[in-house]
Amino acid sequence: MGLERFCAKTPGMVTLALHARSLLCIIGLLSSVSQPVCEAFNLDVENPAVYSGPHGSYFGYAVDFYLAESASVVIGAPKANTRQVDVTEGGSVFYCPWSLSQSDCHSIEFDAEGDRNALLNDTKHQVDFKSHQWFGATVRSHGDTILACAPLYSWRTEKDIPRSDATGTCYLSVHNFTKFVEYAPCRTEISDAVGQGYCQGGFSADFTTDGKVVLGGPGSYFWQGQVISAAKENIIKAYYPGYFMQSVDGQMQTKQVKAEHDDSYQGYSVAVGEFSGDQVEDFVAGVPKGLMLYGSVRKLNHHSHFGFHCDALRFRALGFKLGTDIGKMVDLLVGAPMFMMRGSGGRLEEMGRVYVYLQQGPLNLELSEPHLTGTQVFGRFGSTIAPLGDLNQDGFNDVAISAPFGGDDHQGLVYIFNGYSGGLREKPSQVIAGQWAAGTIPASFGFSLRGAQDLDMNGYPDLIVGAFGVDKAILYRYVILTFNTSASLTVSPGMINPEEKNCMIVNGNTNFQVEVLLDSRDHKKKGAVKRALFLDSQQPSLHKSVRVRHGERVCDHKKIYLRDEKDFKDKLSPIYVAFNYSLDPKAAADSHGLRPILNYQTTNVIEQKAQILLDCGEDNICVPDLKLAVVGDRKEVYLGDDNSLTLTFNARNEGEGGAYEAELYVVLPPEADYIGIARNNELTCSYDTENQTRYLSCELGNPMKSGTSLMEGLRFTVPRVKDTHKTIQFDLQIRSKNENNSHSEIVSYKLEVVVQAEVILQGVSRPDKVFFPPANWQVTKNYGTEQDIGPGVEHIYELVNNGPSRISHTLLTLHCPLNVQSNHLLYPVEFSTVGPINCTSDHKINSLSLKVSHTCTTAHLSGSNKAKSDSEDLPLILSQIAYKQYVLECLARYSVEKMPYAILPKHYPSGHKKVFVLTPVVWNKPDIENSVPLWIIILAVLVGLLLLALLIYILYKFGFFKRSVPYGTAMEKAQLKPQAASEA
């Protein structure tokens, strides 16, 4: 079917076609086809059967199938409490019958008796200890027999009453729980580390095909370890209640060897298989600390009472599990869960590994490569290996391998690997993740595994997984499905031009089941903008339910459009279109309650992409050439100042293409704060913090086109300057999202940290003029108060630091003349200070001990609060002097001795400029009239009066006091008038 083109002249549109051959065909097959075309097997992880045990009992530590009478599983809980008297956490094994309703599990009462006693010298002594014995740590079944062991069970012989040893013990339930017998082959007279006292028999265990019990005891003979085997019929025959030690016919066990094999832990794990070609099963035992801690596997032949062993298989790991049988011949799998390998950084990381040895002939095991290595650090990949049988019916057996601490939150993982002629496939066919996140105790999902048994009798094998950290065991069943399903996705056109906008958006809603996601890869973060939407629904996804019969082909076409470029920033990354299909969850289950699932080999997610057309030439690849230059309005910052700063940058793109999502990235030093934009208000900047780094990002264009040159300014303050560094640095860079040449070079702007203070010295005289001598002043030689000396004068000196840096020590020097031409001029009375000031003088102050009135004005301390300021008062008193006029001149100067910084100032503030304070002294003339005798004054007054009387008499005689005579006759008056008139 050809592709139909929608909006052919609208490159802003994308048409996608979904082609599905036999899409979801399992639905049609189940409803109308009786025989599927092709079969494959998967574990049904959606519908597991979950068994739960008592909280904190470690239910699920060991698991196995039990198919004697009815389908069921047996599950060990080594920390469970039982009804045994005076036994704490003795451990238990639970029987869990299979049914779709998941019936409750119940404990199997292997041993109802508590701790046992023995008579010694008519006194009862406790001879075994069942508390904390971890009964159920090992569980295996064979036919109608269940073997359960307590590797930490302890006992003491009669000759060693004061002590006890962890010999370990096991119990067998035979004939479908009708009889229980104890089997403790390490409980012998030879105790202590020398013998089997620390054996921990039952630490590992297995059954042969014909029913022989195989036990591993890694603690025997100074932890050389031991493997013990006996037929279960002989164990049952030899058992007698009340007997602590028993002799089992045909029992075989490894012997003590040279001391160089101490601390090897043989029997840490055991497995059964035929390796010698004599049709009789042999045993293999893990020796995790053998061969200088490399680890080894020993093959033990029953014909020589375990005398044969080989150390050819070596592993650089501590502790491992064994598994067998992946091909037609018996092969060997060895797990090394603590295998270390170097990571990308060169550091050793614990990843875990599984080695596969293929048996090419009798006693000819060949290592298969590549090895299976875990992908989760500390996941303990290879902790447990379980054969599963031939799941996919290809003639080769498959296995399950666990990583009980792998996965997210260390919830545990189980990997399914398919076998083939060369061993195991390198990649797992299925990975099952535990559904319980790790808590205080990790869930340990996969710590125990058992498979290759058909529990539900549907003809397909099942897998049971233990998760003792959450006290659960999970049963997974295998299902059959059709896997010849294919789908295709086409996106056309592959290049979208955002400049052409010719399509019309139509509102509409559609209910879909098949899922198609637009812009699916790089835009999954919360809050991210989806750049493309479906035209009819205006949503970034669609779902649609499709029913397809076998051989049928279904095609669908949907139009999508690009949002307006103002709605998103990312124009470089492709728009990924993801097509995902899955089976309908409402499909009917079969008679066994199983639902179909897609084969693990089926690709059910398809992804295509479309590019946004850029202004970058034919290849649509932009290669910018970003340049940055920075200048500042200052080169220094001062300690103690706010230090305003403006950085002006010139950003240029000299490349052949635009720089998309270009921004100026400024890393701020800890001492600086961003204030705002200095030049252009159209520049947009945002301030943020990432990993304790404060930075400023300013948008320069999307794209910042080729040839663009921007000149902008940014304002900062640098108020938190410290003397721990001599420079402060701003790092600036232009960044873009382009794949090629995306960043400019980093430009650093450095400021020098400087110590600087500005000091001002001022002085004033109070009063500004002194008159001498004062009124009513008497010269005396008995001075009692300061007023007896003469008039007072006060000089006030003020030292002000205008900063910005602080001063810690300043010296102020004052010089005043005390004598003039051998005559006393000044008498110093006292210093009056404000602040932490200490004053000294080379002349004794108040040498006559006069009474001081403290009436002098005190100078006020002033100056910057960022620095200490000093001031001095110098009250002075003029002594008796005969000079008529004199100007008192005092000289002051300062010097800064110390500043409280590790950085030395370039220039210390200095008092080279002298400050003179002047006080004019004005001489008052003496009032000599006051010394004339009184009689002379009276006589002078009388003489004055007499002279005044004489002057009045003389004036009287001359007519001075007479009035003028009136005019004469009228004729005379007439004669006078013209003259008067003329005069007028």
From TrEMBL:
Q: Which GO terms describe its cellular component?
A: external side of plasma membrane; integrin complex
Source taxonomy lineage? Eukaryota, Metazoa, Chordata, Craniata, Vertebrata
Keyword DNA damage appears in the UniProt entry = no
Signal sequence range: 1-40
Name the species this protein comes from: Sphaeramia orbicularis
Annotated compartments:
Membrane
Instruction: Give me the FG-GAP repeat coordinates as residue ranges.
Output: 42-105, 121-182, 187-239, 367-426, 430-492
SMART domains, per this entry?
Answer: Int_alpha
What is the membrane topology noted in the UniProt record heading this document?
Single-pass type I membrane protein
Q: What is this protein called?
A: Integrin, alpha 5 (fibronectin receptor, alpha polypeptide)
Residue stretches making up the Integrin alpha first immunoglubulin-like domain: 506-615
Q: Would the keyword ATP-binding be found if you checked this record's keyword annotation?
A: no
Query: Which residue range or ranges hold the Integrin alpha third immunoglobulin-like domain?
Result: 759-860
GO terms for biological process, alphabetical = angiogenesis; cell adhesion mediated by integrin; cell-cell adhesion; cell-matrix adhesion; integrin-mediated signaling pathway
Q: What domain of life does the native source organism fall in?
A: Eukaryota
Q: Where are the transmembrane segments?
A: 934-956
* Keywords recorded for this protein, A-Z: Calcium, Cell adhesion, Cleavage on pair of basic residues, Disulfide bond, Glycoprotein, Integrin, Membrane, Metal-binding, Receptor, Repeat, Signal, Transmembrane, Transmembrane helix
Family in the record: Belongs to the integrin alpha chain family.
Tell me, what's a Pfam family for it?
Answer: Integrin_A_Ig_2
Tell me the name of the encoding gene.
itga5
